[in-house]
Amino acid sequence: xxxxxxxxxxxxxxxxxxxxxxxxxxxxxxxxxxxxxxxxxxxxxxxxxxxxxxxxxxxxxxxxxxxxxxxxxxxxxxxxxxxxxxxxxxxxxxxxxxxxxxxxxxxxxxxxxxxxxxxxxxxxxxxxxxxxxxxxxxxxxxxxxxxxxxxxxxxxxxxxxxxxxx
Length: 166
Ligand code: FES
Ligand code: FES
Prior knowledge:
By secondary structure, this protein is α+β, with helices and mostly antiparallel strands. The chain is built from five helices and five strands, in the order ββαβββαααα. It has a five-stranded mixed β-sheet with strand order 2-1-5-3-4, with helices on one face. β1 and β2 (10-15) form a beta hairpin. It is globular. The chain binds FE2/S2 (inorganic) cluster (2 copies). Residues 97-103, 134-137 line the site of one FE2/S2 (inorganic) cluster.
């Protein structure tokens, strides 16, 4: 079947098999390897992409479901000049990754949250991010990175306590 959708701000169209997942199509047909595949059963969140601004597990989301929709992957987050999104920069500033396998999904899920609620509390961030698992960081740097980006997106100046976690 032929599908058309918007991918990272550009029109995309291709022939797919109805059984193909969005993760398979994004990685194999578009070379968007920032979409990470791990559990393949909608548990870990590493394959998270945004469809119409909301996180979906691309490992179980069939590609045809994205037809006529707006899909965003981590490759689409920097601005046209290549400036990183505040969440991407905050993950670097806070050392919020080690192996990095969970990071694209983490950042995209967090973007969806902050787009909906720029003033998300610590508890709201933890609850929203519960579908994204990390084996490396212990989560605190991730939480702090999301809080840093949240403050920046609200236009708040960084405070003296905004250094990286020890
Ligand atoms: S690879 Fe999709 S949720 Fe784990
Ligand atoms: S940084 Fe390794 S799984 Fe999260």
